[in-house]
Amino acid sequence: MIRLLTGVAALAIPAAAVAQDAATATPIDNAGEDVIVGRARTTQERFEIVVSGSGALPLTSADAVQSTTLIEDLRPGIGARIENRMRDEAGIVQFRRSDGRSANPTSQGVTLRGLGGNASSRALVMLDGIPQADPFGGWVAWTAFDAINLRGATITRGGGSGADGPGALAGTIGLNSDLTYGGTASLAYGSRDSWDASASVGGGLGGGEVAVDGRYGRGDGFIPIAKGQRGSVDRAAPFEQGGLGVRMRFDTGESGRIEASVRGFSDRRDRGTDFTTSQVDGIDASLRFVRDPHRTNQLFALAYVQLRDFESGFASVAANRNSVAPALFQRVPATGLGARIEFRPVIGRANPLRVGADWRRTTGRTEEDFFFAGAVPGRHRTAGGDSDTIGAFAEWTSGYRDHGLVWTLSGRVDRWWLGEGYRLERNIAGPVITDLRFAARQGWEGSGRAGVQWTKNALSLRAAAYRSWRLPTLNELYRPFRVGAEVTTANEMLKPERLWGGEVGVDWGRDDTKLSVTLFVNHLTGAIANVTLAPNLNQRQNLDAIDTKGIEISAEQKIDFLTLRATYALTDATVDASRAAAALDGRRPAQIAKHGGSVSLRSNTRGPVQGFATLRYVGKQNEDDLGLLVLGDALTLDAGLSWRLAQAISLEARGENLFDELVPAAISSAGIVERAMPRTLWIGARLSF
Question: For 664-684, what is each residue's pLDDT tens digit?
Fold first, then answer.
């Protein structure tokens, strides 16, 4: 508590918030027929911006029955990271506390409401309606979003929204892109010889529009191992990342448009010792048609492809950390394909009905060299498979959020297939050791949501119940792995995870004040976890259940030219386990903190001087399933200032983790602590035209 009060006091010192870095996050407020995509509309009470992806239909009132937050602006500030912006919203948990400059790319899964630590995402991350999880592993390549200009994000806590597609087990994080008009460019220099550059340019092209966005960043990095535990093999972990995206839009008549996008990204990281470099390369392409006239039939059709190629090295470090040897080299090519169609017929004066269908296919494999003798691998492993999901959904929403009663009912049915999986291990200079084929499987799953919201003047009451599910990833099914002395075996018989949950909440807003409180309860059956079978031996298994309950609070107050916002989540999570996993029964899931929150102060005007300060707190959490290894709590402060010298030129300064807090991101069985980003300072300039 003393640390928290100290941090709040420190927060008041740099009192302002850079608009380029982040904007106010507010509960979503849209009401059926009077939503205007991507433009401002005024009401008698306030000015608000309603954001919907430029490649999607307008938002509806359906998500108002659940805890939903709209982040209105995600334009990049110097050195800013979108995954860190997500950490400002309490309840969003990423598997590691490190960000995309230092974490292993395979550890960047995301979940909501304490539904267990897992490198595979239990929340569905989407960009303009396209799932963003890696087709093989289910983790999220956050650096891929460097190649696109983001307009905002919609965060829906809790599953059951069948219109979003399968995989929205814990909720949905919907990212929305934007077409650039004119241009912006920025260049910044930071700690440890770091550079960050971004540029966007766009305008008219024939009868349409085109925009190009790009970003590049690099740095010498920091030493991941905590001071006092380092040996001669430990060194700084450099990174180099970049991306480029092209988007085009062409109108087809008065109410329709066709959009096409292509983006690519490249990510190079190092884990701070020899033999631990990693790289991720990706290309995404999509084509969509949108027909969204006001008060007539609306249509959305989408097709997309995702190509991923991931490579990583893993090292074996001696106990005294004075020698290191290669342990494994991994390459993972994967492909995701998908299509979606949604139709909203006009009924009366609105579009209360949504019906649609979607399909997603994933294929991938891991190619691994291991059992090294010096620098020469002795064995090779290949493992992989494919999966398909086809689903149809329908959703009916009655009423408008701004007044009276809103109720929604949605349902979805999915047919899933797992193709024949395989795992082959052989001596590189000798015979085959293991040659396994795993039978194909298939099944049906259902999901849905029922909810109601009642609004009277400034007060809104809401309640929702939902069911959702998630198919195991190819990585969870077929790939064993090793971290140090810890071996985790795969499990080709894993079953889908299934969630039943509910929530009740109250929202209050008047003039410049907003308050939201939500109580939730979830029961996740078949939760996939790494279960300890013996010392240094684990296996992925379906647990009986993970039960979570808790409270989420957000409050916002505008004070002249500043906006003060606070979020807090208390999550009580326990494992229900038996048989081989009986030792986990009653324990807290790994990687889930009981307490988390943030306080931010941001400028809300367009004056020449702007700034921000954000204080984040994350409570202690278990590193392992048995709770033998504990990651301590952490309190960090980010802050920045922007000064507009002229109409088109601004200077910016930014600091990350200004307290230089030791933020433990991982701990090994030997007690070696890996840390997240230390204090990092940036200074740069931005040009707009």
Answer: 999 988 889 999 999 999 999
Q: Which amino acid is at 376?
A: V
**How far is it, in rounded angstroms, from Cα 610 to Cα 185?**
18
Owner of token pair 């090295």? 313
Q: Which amino acid is at 363?
A: T
The amino acid sitting at 606 is R
Are the C-beta atoms of 630 and 622 separated by less than 8 Å? yes
Residue closest to 587 by CA, chosen among 545, 525, 617 = 545
Strand partners, 529: 541
Residues 6+ apart with CB under 8 A from 628: none
pLDDT at 220: 96
The pTM of the whole model exceeds 0.90 = no
Rounded CA separation 486/118 (Å): 16
Q: If we measure between CA atoms, which residue out of 102, 69, 57, 67 comes closest to residue 84? A: 102
Residue 479 identity = R
Task: Assess contact for 394 and 364: CB atoms under 8 A.
Answer: no
Rounded average pLDDT over 502-515: 93
Query: Distance (Å, rounded) from C-alpha 32 to C-alpha 57?
Result: 11
Q: 329, 331, 339: which is closest to 359 by C-alpha?
A: 339
Residue 434: partners with Cβ closer than 8 Å, 6 or more residues away: 423, 424, 425, 426
Q: Is the torsion defined by CA of 5, 69, 243, 676 positive or negative?
A: positive
As a dihedral over the C-alpha atoms of residue 389, residue 390, residue 396, residue 400, rounded to 10 degrees, the angle is 50
pLDDT of residue 60: 78
Q: Assess contact for 550 and 113: CB atoms under 8 A.
A: yes
**Other C-beta atoms within 10 Å of 301: how many?**
16
Q: pLDDT for 188-214, tens place per residue?
A: 999 999 999 999 999 988 888 999 999
Q: Which of 435, 405, 433, 411 shows the shortest CA–CA distance to 422?
A: 435
- What is the rounded distance in angstroms from the CA atom of residue 459 to the CA atom of residue 456? 5
Could you write out the DSSP letters of every residue in 571-590?
A: EEEEEE--GGGGGGTTPPPT
CA dist 140 → 124, 126, 313, 593, 669 (Å): 10, 10, 19, 21, 26
DSSP 8-state symbol, 225 = B
Q: Is there a contact between 588 and 575 (Cβ–Cβ < 8 Å)?
A: yes
Residues 100, 77: Cα–Cα separation, whole Å? 16
Structure tokens at 512: 């410049």
Q: How many CB atoms lie within 10 A of CB 304?
A: 21
Say which amino acid occupies 101.
R
Residue pair 591/626 in contact (Cβ under 8 Å)? The answer is no
Q: What is the per-residue DSSP string for 87-138? A: TTSTTEEESSSS-TTTS-GGG--EEETT----SS-SSEEEETTEE-B-TTT-
Residue 82 host element (H or E):
helix 82-86
d(CA 285, CA 305) in angstroms, rounded, equals: 6
pLDDT tier at 33 (50, 70, 90 boundaries)? very low
Given pLDDT bands bounded at 50, 70 and 90, which one contains residue 295? low
Domains and CATH numbers, the chain: 2-202+216-231+246-399+406-688 (2.40.170.20)
Residue 265: which of 282, 284, 247, 240 has the closest Cα?
A: 282
Q: Which two tokens stand for residue 345?
A: 């017929």
